[in-house]
Amino acid sequence: MADMTPLFRRREAKNPRAPQDRLVTLIRKPGCHLCDDAQIVIEMVCADLGVPWEQKDITEDPQLHDQYWEQIPVVLVDGEQHTFWRVDENRLRKALTD
Fold first, then answer.
1. How far apart are CA 36 and CA 49, in angstroms?
2. How is residue 30 annotated by DSSP?
3. pLDDT at site 8
4. Residues 88, 39: contact at Cβ < 8 Å?
5. Angle, vertex CA 63, rays to CA 60 and CA 64, nearest 5
6. Can you list the pairs that 13-20 forms with residues at least 24 positions away whose Cβ atoms lie under 8 Å?
7. Quick check: 53 and 42 in contact, CB under 8 A?
8. From CA 77, how far away is CA 69, in angstroms rounded?
9. In terms of DSSP H, where are the helices of 1-98?
10. What is the DSSP letter of 21?
11. End-to-end CA distance of the chain
12. Residue 89, SS3 per DSSP
């Protein structure tokens, strides 16, 4: 049979990373209620999946401050920006399991 159209072609298998090899970073600032909300979602999803996470305070890092001040909170997955302002649990879970 000739090549199938892209519509029916299987997606190439990605090289999935083990949960412990992933990293979620929450970039936040003190007194930010959206940051607190984001942290709750991140803690829950990362605990469920066994993914480590960290938080960074933009008031302590001039480079992060310059880059993300207007987007706080910002979530990075493996060092790449995943989202900002609000964290969607399902979207974060999918990013960590794909």
1. 20
2. T
3. 45
4. no
5. 65
6. 14/98, 16/97, 16/98, 17/78, 19/49, 19/50, 19/51, 19/96, 20/50, 20/51, 20/52
7. yes
8. 18
9. 33-49, 62-68, 89-97
10. G
11. 30
12. helix
Distance of alpha carbon 76 from its chain centroid, rounded?
4
Tell me 10's DSSP state. Answer: P
How are beta strands 24-28 and 74-77 bridged, if at all? antiparallel
Please give the Cα distance from 97 to 57 (Å, whole number). Answer: 26
pLDDT tens, 37-67? 999 999 999 999 999 999 999 999 999 999 9
20 — pLDDT class (breaks 50, 70, 90): confident
What's the gap between Cα 46 and its chain centre?
Answer: 10
* Displacement of CA 73 from its chain's centroid (Å): 11
66 Cβ contact partners less than 8 Å away, ≥ 6 residues apart: none
- Amino acid at site 45: V
Nearest 5°: the CA angle 59, 62, 64 is 80
SS3 66: helix
